Fold:
Amino acid sequence: MGARIESVATSRSHGGPLARGALHLSDVAARKCLDRGGRRASDIDLLVNAGLYKDRNMAEPALASIIQEDIGANPGHPPRIDRHGTFSFDVINGGCGVLSAAHLVDAFVGTGAAHLGLIVAGDADPSPSTSRGFAFPPVGGAILLGNPDPDEGFARFAFRTFPQHADLFEVRLHWEARSRRNVLEVREHADFAKRCVECATEATIGFLGPIGLRIGEIDLVIASQYPPAFSADLARALGISPDRAPEARPELGCAHTAGPIAALESAIVSDRFARARNVLFVTVGAGVTTAIALYRGVPETGGVPR
Amino acid sequence: MLLEPGDIPDAAQHTARFDSVGVKLPERRLTTDALMGSTRHHTSIDLEHLTGIRERRVCSEGEDSYTLAVGAARDCLARSRHARSDLEMVVCASITRYTGGLSYRFEPPLSLSIKEAIGAPGAINLDISNACAGMLTGVFLLNHFVRHGVIRCGMVVSGEYISGLGTNAAHDIHGLYSRQLASLTLGDAGAAVIVERAADGKPGISLAGFTTLCEHSRLCLGLPAPHSPGARMFTKARTIHKVAIQDTPPLLGAVLGRAGLHLSDIDWLIPHQTSARAIKAGARELAERFGEGPKRVVMNVEEYGNTASTTHFVALHRYLTEGRFQRGDRIALLALASGLEVGVVLLVMDDLVESHGRTH
Structure:
């Protein structure tokens, strides 16, 4: 089995011009996650940030390195190879970023090359005065992935893209001559949400078939929280009860990259995650991109701290 | 340091190697004289003397991060024995993500458009961001996936349309101590490398390691420009240089020690290409600390400047094209980037010396 989820946490801010930025949200979620998992920041081998909309749209360095410094994960002086260090970088894959990051961390933790990985994802409007159509709430999330357990952990990942729908959701930062500003613009076509459900349904069926699982054997679906109502629409399309695809707490609703973490936290709080054997992560993003992962749980043991 | 292979024997079955390296350079050249002649203020900076950079390539109308990345990916595939359908992963590692001019794309990921453009729609794609260490971070990741049999073949690609930072810096800069000085060294380039499973018993990447010295994470920041197109970069260059001189040798020494090598066993050290002065100072420090330096240090800034995440592969491509490497040469690729990222990839030069010149 691959990496095991040790703990999960989220953070939030109120909206508006005085909302806290993505770095603050990420730092808070990361610290809370470490605390819940009973781990020290210095235990982290690999730190991957999947958050996309950063304070002031910073492009360099990777936000992960700043989060690493803020939480005190082996700030690193003097560096020696036999001392524990932390390697951090960012993954950019929109609504599927957390599962892309999990795929990478799982590969290192699952093979023993790393022992503990932290995935962080936080988004906030980088500059409310110069953004257009930015609808994601300021939410952060973090997941701690630890050493594999023979019975529990990630078992399989799959990624698909549907480029015929690539123009349905685009986010760009471009120079606007009229205002003489670089403007962040989110363009979402009215069909985006519908196509996301169609693509995710097709990808889910394509994922389960080859591994001999029926949708009825999936105890829990952890889905993206954007587009709005994606969880419920996906559950309906897959023919499962909506309570098997829990939504994030209302105040975290529509979270972008942290959405699946927020949904997972809901499932943990309600004990559904602890009771599940087969957990299916289904995320969607621009592209249209789908990312699916099967996580094998150990029912009733309730191993993930709240 | 996260190392592969590490100190615990792992279950890796395979060795990864570079199958091919591709590059796409814009035709247009911008000399350092011309760039410094465009500054708004009189600066008295002799940038060419300071950096060893005589010129850099810069994008023209119709060129951007995406076109450079696609051009490099196609060049890489043309030199590869692999068909495009063999690519199981495509990792885009650009800092700049400009498409359609200076329009910075957040979503969808650039790697999606690149894999579609080169005809590898079935590949898993993702973008990563790790400043100038981006491409070597991608190599580090693909090395792991190949070693453990998850994939047999993948591509790391980057297109850097980053010269606009120099244009913005030329507008702002007043003197030598400006935090935008490093922006004047930047040039545009695309680069790509295919990482594949080596035949059993054949050499390839022998060791790869990365760490982030995050107490220095805020020494270099790249942000959109407030009142002009593109971005600006603010660098505490002297502090970064000091940290690099201080912290890189012990890390490199430890990696070499794990591989059972001394620095003098390295035939070619390819550091991140920032400026001739910084590379020479780094080489001197290494020679002093180790008693003896690598046999040769690759310097490729004179005509290209600092091409951000692509520098190692622009240099590798050039030296392969010029036939400078010999089969069996030990190569050390050394990443040093904002973060502060320190990475080392050790490999043994193999069939690549012959296959690079062949197109398929």
